[in-house]
Design goal:
It contains three helices and eleven strands; from the N terminus they run E-E-E-E-E-E-H-E-H-E-E-H-E-E. It has about 150 residues and is α+β, with helices and mostly antiparallel strands. The chain has a four-stranded antiparallel β-sheet with strand order 1-2-5-6, with no helix packed on it. Strands 8-11-10 form a three-stranded mixed β-sheet, with helices on one face. A two-stranded antiparallel sheet has the order 3-4. It is globular.
Length: about 150
Amino acid sequence: MIDGMKVQVLGTKFNVNAYSEEKQFTTALLEGAVRVTAGNRQVTLKPGQESAFSPKAGSLKQYEGDMESAVAWKNGIITFKNDELSAVMRDLGRWYDVDVAYEPGLDKEIHVTGAMRKQEHLSQALKILELTAGVHFTVEGRTVKVSR
């Protein structure tokens, strides 16, 4: 409090997903406001909105988001909603600190929907994916091999 003026920070809750190997970077806003700028394009997010920036295309879009999925990791859950298998495996690779190798010619654009607790052992997570994606996994050291 200064001379009758009070400044109170109410807080902003948001999530940024910006890994260099991903096709796009996303920002999800739960509370407050966030401005995202990419090149000469700028969007201001309101609670419940997301933005996606594609570095390769240079595009920035704003849309109503899926806040449950955006912050699931904070609640100890990994969620996938019609995500490509290759994106799911990149996430699991980061989480479990493993490398992923694919059988030559395997379609990595298989789409996967599901959820799992982050506390699951790698073997259990892979069993869940085997059932939902119709692929097979073998683990050799720190490498997970994906095949049909």
